[in-house]
Design goal:
This is Glycerol-3-phosphate dehydrogenase. It catalyses: a quinone + sn-glycerol 3-phosphate = dihydroxyacetone phosphate + a quinol. Pathway: Polyol metabolism; glycerol degradation. One of its GO terms (molecular function) is calcium ion binding. It is globular and about 90 Å long. The strands form 3 sheets. Strands 3, 4, 5, 6, 11, 12, 13, 14, 15, 16 and 17 form an 11-stranded mixed beta sheet that branches. Strands 1, 2, 7, 8, 9, 10, 18 and 19 form an 8-stranded mixed beta sheet that branches. It folds into 4 domains: 172 residues, FAD/NAD(P)-binding domain (3-Layer(bba) Sandwich); 162 residues, D-Amino Acid Oxidase, subunit A, domain 2 (D-Amino Acid Oxidase, Chain A, domain 2, 2-Layer Sandwich); 130 residues, Alpha-glycerophosphate oxidase, cap domain (Helicase, Ruva Protein, domain 3, Orthogonal Bundle); 93 residues, Recoverin, domain 1, CATH 1.10.238.10. The protein is α+β, with helices and mostly antiparallel strands and 693 residues long.
Length: 693
């Protein structure tokens, strides 16, 4: 990739900290510093970017976040680093110079982000299938213009595929009426980890950054020279302890995304609202729904929106929707939006691929903060770019924009801060500045992890892609497995490469809760809510050891994390696919077959099975399973919550599985496996069973 516009960053001083200081040390810095140059409110991508931009210019910088870094919109994106093909289309069709500039800027920022965090990002080919001959030249011209606007920062040239070649690359694609396809390139990243890398890099350069620090009010003082009342800091509250103290600063920056207006109203209760929140829902499906290295773009859904269908972390992401919503710190994906996405996916996949509701492994909603420019005469016009607003009291608000342009947004914001508050600082130095883990990363780094530490190859690749050159520190913490191979690296859950050492390391990365760990230090919650729930007890136990949690605290963390999975990550919608009102639509032969399977467990024909029945069968086939896990498995199917699974509940489950509303039921898999093992057992002849004695 030719990154012509990115200059070498050799004039930037090295980080002042080899590792980010602990949260406790950061809190002391916040308390004991008489005055900062910059105080940033908000630890999303933009806020963290502002802190990094400011501190690398030599400004004394602080950042506070009410929740965790990237807990909001920044972790709930489509995971793309892109200029925006559809924005370019609109720019051309409507001769909109603002949209054109936004696309051009985003394409430059895309190149920079791929360069400074190579472990967390990579180019991704995206296919645009064509089903009408006239669309082929139309789309081809548009995509070629996209390449042209990128200029020397074009990742790879787009190209046209014939029908047969398109199906080779994307065999799940709908074949009927397919003419061909166009493939173009954009970037993809691990959004929450990218956000965290920005915040950690800022901390290493000397910014006092703290999550779980809520701004309860803004501080103000009268400027003796002008007589004007100016914002001079914030009253902050440690959400974890309840402690409050003042953080004073020459300039306060509001980078709170969807919560922009709430901070603006702290400054001026009569401030007009500028944020128009829009909810974007995404779903995650098994990896077999898409090729491992090819995405898909649906340019015109049934209601005119755009849907991406992308491989990510060996799974498949589909989304997004775009609907007006209320601002909330806990957005919930709706069943309506989930089904809308599934229906659009069905339109583009072969009829051989059954798109099942039960294959939705996770779902989330992110709130995009669309904004109107308060300085614009047309207050109803939504700005597609970012807006930097300066209030009469000097509060600087940065809002709007997109993930890809976080760095340029931060640069514009700090430029405004320097000018408005007469701060002494030079130009931005973040172009080409490596983020945490990126400097010494290489595509073959994982091999050293395998060779030096005895990690599984899959785990080593995951660590290298998540932590970059910091992966060695995680590997050093890895527990011995007690096996011949791998030597170290005990997994948190069998089907994902996350290991226990990441929990300990995650605390060094400011993880304070179990939710932080399952959603943003690891991405389990975004990949498979059931797997995340299975890993929770062990995660809580490991965090409890490091953070000295008592039993009450552990239980509280467990319950909070389960609630997060249930509501915010789609577990509720998933579980509602099987209810006590679910009908049984099975053929008589199927009912007989499933009754036979059920009675392998319900040996005395009492009409229900309990954990004791399951344990008895498992023992007979020499399978051991933790009792708590068994309780969880039965509870998933125990619709009336009476502590037992009745025959009718089991038949409802099997009917829902056949209809595609439910998939991956642990009880169904366990019972089928047990039945097969029982049926394979051959009776031992009397003369070989000591029966002759």
């Amino acid at each position: 990739m030719n990154l012509a516009y990115v200059k070498a960053a050799d004039y930037i001083s090295e980080p002042v900290n080899r590792e980010p200081p602990s949260r406790e040390a950061q809190l002391l810095t916040l308390q004991n510093t008489s005055e900062f140059d910059i105080l940033v409110i908000g630890g999303g991508a933009t806020g963290s970017g502002c802190a990094l931009d400011a501190v690398t210019r030599g400004l004394k910088t602080a950042l506070v976040e009410r929740d965790d870094f990237s807990s909001g919109t920044s972790s709930r994106s489509t995971k793309l680093i892109h200029g925006g093909v559809r924005y370019l289309q609109k720019a051309i069709m409507k001769l909109d110079i603002e949209q054109y500039r936004m696309v051009k800027e985003a394409l430059h920022e895309r190149a920079n982000l791929l360069e400074i965090a190579p472990h967390l990002s990579a180019p991704l080919p995206i296919m645009l299938p064509v089903y009408k001959w006239w669309q082929l030249p139309y789309y081809w011209v548009g995509i070629k213009l996209y390449d042209l606007v990128a200029g020397s920062n074009c990742l790879k040239s787009s190209y046209v595929l014939s029908k047969s070649r398109a199906l080779e690359h994307f065999p799940m694609l709908q074949k009927d009426k397919l003419v061909g396809a166009i493939v173009y390139y954009d970037g993809q990243h691990n959004d929450a980890r990218m956000n965290l890398a920005i915040a950690l890099t800022a901390a290493r350069y000397g910014a006092a950054t703290a999550n779980y620090m809520e701004v309860v009010s803004l501080l103000k003082k009268t400027d003796p020279q002008t007589g004007k009342v100016r914002v001079s800091g914030a009253r902050c509250k440690d959400v974890l302890t309840g402690q409050e103290f003042d953080v004073r600063a020459k300039c306060v920056i509001n980078a709170t995304g969807p919560f922009t207006d709430s901070v603006r109203k702290m400054d001026d209760k009569d401030a007009a609202a500028i944020c128009q929140p829009s909810a974007g829902v995404h779903i995650v499906m098994p990896g077999y729904y898409s090729p491992e290295s090819m995405g898909l773009l649906d340019p015109a859904t049934s209601d005119g929106r755009v849907i991406f269908f992308l491989p990510w972390q060996k799974m498949t992401i589909a989304g997004t929707t775009d609907t007006p919503t209320d601002v909330t710190p806990h957005p919930i994906p709706s069943e309506e939006d989930i089904n809308f996405i599934l229906n659009e996916v069905r339109n583009y996949l072969s009829c051989d691929v059954e798109v099942r509701r039960g294959d939705v492994l996770a779902a989330w909603s992110g709130i995009r903060p669309l904004v109107t420019d308060p300085k614009s005469a047309d207050t109803q016009s939504i700005s597609r770019n970012h807006v930097v607003d300066i209030s009469e009291s000097g509060l600087i608000t940065i809002a709007g924009g997109k993930w890809t342009t976080y760095r340029s947004m931060a640069e514009d914001t700090i430029n405004a801060a320097i000018k408005t508050h007469n701060l002494k600082a030079g130009p931005s130095r973040t172009v080409g500045l490596f983020l945490q883990g990126g400097k010494d990363w290489s595509p073959t780094l994982y091999i050293r992890l395998v060779q030096d530490y005895g990690l599984e190859s899959e785990v080593a690749q995951h660590l290298a892609a998540t932590y970059g050159d910091k992966a060695f520190e995680v590997a050093k913490m890895a527990s011995v497995t007690g096996k011949r191979w791998p030597i170290v690296g005990v997994r948190l859950v069998s089907e994902f490469p996350y290991i226990e050492a990441e929990v300990k390391y995650g605390i060094k990365e400011y993880a304070c809760t179990a939710v932080d760990m399952i959603s943003r230090r690891t991405r389990l919650a975004f990949l498979n809510v059931q797997a995340a729930e299975e890993a929770l007890p062990r995660i809580v136990e490991l965090m409890g050891r490091e953070l000295n949690w008592d039993d009450h605290k552990k239980q509280e963390q467990l319950e909070t994390a389960k609630k997060f999975l249930y509501y915010e990550m789609g577990y509720k919608s998933r579980s509602e696919q099987l209810t006590d009102r679910s009908e049984i639509s099975l053929l008589p032969s199927d009912i007989d077959r499933y009754k036979k399977r059920f009675h392998k467990f319900d040996a005395d024909k009492k009409g229900f099975i309990t954990i004791v029945d399951v344990q008895r069968v498992l023992e007979s086939i020499n399978v051991q399973m933790d009792e708590n896990t068994l309780h969880e498995i039965l509870n998933e199917v125990d619709l009336n919550k009476n502590g037992q699974v009745e025959l009718n509940e089991f038949l409802q489950l099997m009917s829902a599985i056949q209809k595609g509303r439910v998939s991956g039921s642990r009880l169904a898999i366990l019972m089928k496996t047990a039945e097969e093992n029982l049926d394979r057992r051959v009776p031992i002849p009397v003369d070989r069973s000591c029966g002759g004695f």
